[in-house]
Write a structure and sequence with these properties.
The chain is mainly beta and 473 residues long. Helices cover 0% and strands 38% of the residues. The chain folds into four domains: 99 residues, Beta Complex (Tailspike Protein, Chain); 100 residues; 104 residues, Jelly Rolls (Sandwich); 148 residues, Jelly Rolls. The strands form nine sheets. A six-stranded mixed sheet has the order 9-10-11-15-16-13, with no helix packed on it. It has a six-stranded mixed sheet with strand order 17-18-20-24-25-22, with no helix packed on it. Strand 15 and strand 16 form a beta hairpin.
């Protein structure tokens, strides 16, 4: 009689979770150093070589005979990986499921005590994080087969040693072999994904393909601790929002995991830096600035278990909130004699109440971005104490977008300098023109780039200017 390994094929990984390519599996009679054959199939007609050499995926067909085995696994360089005794089946042991007995359901919880189930085959249901497999198992029969019915997290700790010393996010029908080490400590020494993929991949040869796309329901509110359906096995999330929305965290991060976030909608999703979500689900963004994934843009995030945060590691077309996207500037050294009067009252200044000094055009990249407009200039006035009013206008609008004021000196040439800065929502991606105007109080004159007789100053190097920066919202 023969029995199959608990997995369709024997699978092994190194301490980092990489497939144990070229690994060597030696088989002996239990409790001895006497070689004992395993088989390539259930006929027992074709014994395996001893050791069995694992393929590039760290796998091999390994069938047991009607006996108990000691298995010893080395890597391709003959470095010991693990040794397990009393594995297999005898006529006195149930042969179902590789000698582990019939599957027994066990509900997931922080502590799932494997020693209390009737067999050595636990079918774990539920989605609660598991931190321990209990203390009631026997070190005389320490090996258990586990099958997972749902996605949950196994937490790496001193009582639960996991491959790669990292938390494991399970998927439906994944299986694991675990060993009780005594004193409440357990080791997962073999783990196989239901689809046969390795638990971790730490090295890349050739092209890299990220599989497992999901397109979850549209985000229609600011969201904490996002856990979209199918995320446990996904490498790419194709999302959309109904308006500009904030995302503060994603649940179930495991160390080193990479996820591509792709905005297939037209509204931005703002990745909030270290905010609101459960601490271990939050984001850390470059320079601590919120990060906007605009329509058509994408970002790659990676989970950092040391800081217990998702980190934004790469992005395309997604400027950080507050980042300068582009800047345009215009200046003039021409002399301007400003006599237009701005009423000193509670009405919005009009274009007819000022003189245009200089303009500049810009084409915003996003309608939601901010246009930061700065104007400056200087000169003299005909009388001391003149009020000079810098104003900003946009396109054909006759109402000023912003206005400031300065007062000329009362002695020594009646010199003035004026400065104004304001933020305006772009509102459109069409080209727009911003304009620097200036006006004065009744009975006054202001000379830009000139003395109070109207003569140019400093050989034409005195300038008035306007700068417009597009700021990511």
């Amino acid at each position: 009689m023969t029995t199959l390994q608990p997995f369709p094929i024997f699978t092994a990984a190194d301490a980092n979770g990489n497939p144990l390519s070229g690994g060597k599996l030696y088989s002996y009679a239990a409790g001895t150093s006497t070689p004992l054959d395993t088989y390539t199939d259930n006929t027992t007609d074709s014994p395996n070589l001893n050791p069995v050499i694992l393929n590039a995926a760290g796998q091999a067909n390994v069938w047991y005979g009607d006996a108990m085995y000691k298995l010893v696994l080395y890597d391709a360089n003959d470095v010991l990986q693990w040794e397990e005794d009393n594995i297999g089946t005898t006529s006195a042991t149930s042969t179902s499921n590789g000698g582990f007995g019939a599957a027994e359901d066990a509900e997931s919880a922080s502590l799932v005590d494997l020693g209390t189930i009737a067999s050595h085959f636990a079918n774990i249901t539920g989605t609660v994080t598991i931190n321990s497999f209990g203390t009631s198992a026997s070190i005389e029969a320490p090996i258990y087969l586990i099958k997972f019915e749902s996605a949950l997290t196994l937490t790496n700790s001193a009582s639960l040693f996991l491959p790669g010393s990292a938390d494991v996010l399970t998927a439906q029908n994944d299986r694991a072999l675990v060993e009780y080490l005594g004193s409440g400590a357990w080791r997962v020494f073999s783990y196989m994904r239901a689809d046969g993929s390795p638990l971790y991949v730490n090295t890349i040869a050739g092209a890299l393909s990220l599989t497992g796309d999901i397109s979850p329901s549209q985000l229609v509110a600011n969201t904490d601790d996002w856990a979209p359906v199918g995320f446990s096995t996904a490498s790419s999330i194709r999302f959309s929002t109904d308006a500009s929305r904030n995302l503060t965290g994603i649940a179930a991060g495991t160390d080193g995991r990479l996820v591509v976030l792709s905005n297939i909608g037209s509204f931005p999703l703002v990745i909030k830096n270290d905010a609101t979500s459960t601490a271990a689900n939050r984001f850390l963004t470059p320079n601590g600035l919120d990060y906007s994934i605009n329509g058509g843009g994408s970002a790659i995030i990676q989970y950092d278990a040391t800081s217990s945060r998702w980190r934004v590691v790469s992005a395309t077309g997604n400027p950080r909130v507050g980042q300068v996207i582009q800047s345009v500037r215009a200046s003039t050294s021409n002399v301007f004699n400003v006599t237009a009067i701005v009423p000193f009252d509670n009405t919005i200044p009009q274009t007819s109440e000022g003189l245009q000094i200089v303009t500049v055009a810009i084409t915003p990249t996003s309608s939601s971005n901010i246009l930061r407009v700065t104007v400056s200039g200087g000169g003299t006035s005909n009388v001391g104490g003149t009020n000079v009013y810098p104003m900003i206008f946009r396109d054909s609008n006759t109402d000023a977008s912003a206005v400031g004021f300065s007062t000329t000196a009362t002695t020594s040439g009646f010199i003035f300098g004026t400065y104004l800065k304001t933020d305006i929502v772009a509102g459109s991606t069409a080209a727009t023109t911003l304009k620097f105007y200036a006006g004065v109080n009744t009975g006054a004159q202001a000379y830009f780039n000139a003395n109070n007789s109207g003569g140019a100053l400093f050989g034409g190097t005195s300038t008035a200017e306007i700068t417009v920066e597009e700021i990511s919202a």
